[in-house]
């Protein structure tokens, strides 16, 4: 079975700070993963390594069967779709671009269109816009869209090149409840119909929909647990990960978390200070 992601004894050290320590993690075909952890737990560093923008201090990494140190990283990135609120830093470039042109730019992994666009490219973009329920936005510019609409456009851009791996870094951040559930319903459709592997990063257990099969729990740069979500999302492991007494219940194959009522104010203050 092909490994989509493989990390063996991966550590990342910057100065005297250990950011990741001894990460051993594999994503196999037909697995859809979620990464959970507090801010500073190492989630972003793992994404930076997977996309080849950061090299580990030690250890071996391969993505989509390409071993780092031997792989052509610019070519590899064309097989990886990436959606993150961090793309908002390109707002000045994106703001006057039309929705369809932003989606098409995903074929070239650029912000803005600088290459020739074929009729087939435009047809592909329109199909994606219909799939993502944003075809009514054709011709509109990015700066006229709501936050939820912008997120869908960036998902369309990420899907344009038909990636084998789709990374979504907190795609619901800044969205209201309705827009968040709309994004999650699209995640279900993407997993079922787009034939790509999803790596979904979030703080919120309630965003783990039924179609997401596996979970990686991170704490302070180390793995707390990794595996099938039913095995990983226990109260003990989640309490360790989030440093709070967490209760878990499941509804319609979707987990939800709450905090034990008897948590002391000192415990909560300590957690909030981290």
Automatic annotation (TrEMBL):
GO molecular function: ATP binding; ATP hydrolysis activity
Pfam families tied to this protein: ABC_tran (PF00005)
Domain of life: Bacteria
Membrane-spanning ranges: none
Domain ABC transporter: 5-245
InterPro entries: ABC_transporter-like_ATP-bd (IPR003439), ABC_transporter-like_CS (IPR017871), Metal_Ion_Import_ABC (IPR050153), P-loop_NTPase (IPR027417)
Keywords (A to Z) from UniProt: ATP-binding, Nucleotide-binding, Transport
Similarity comment: Belongs to the ABC transporter superfamily.
Entry protein name: Iron complex transport system ATP-binding protein
The organism of origin for this protein: Parageobacillus thermantarcticus
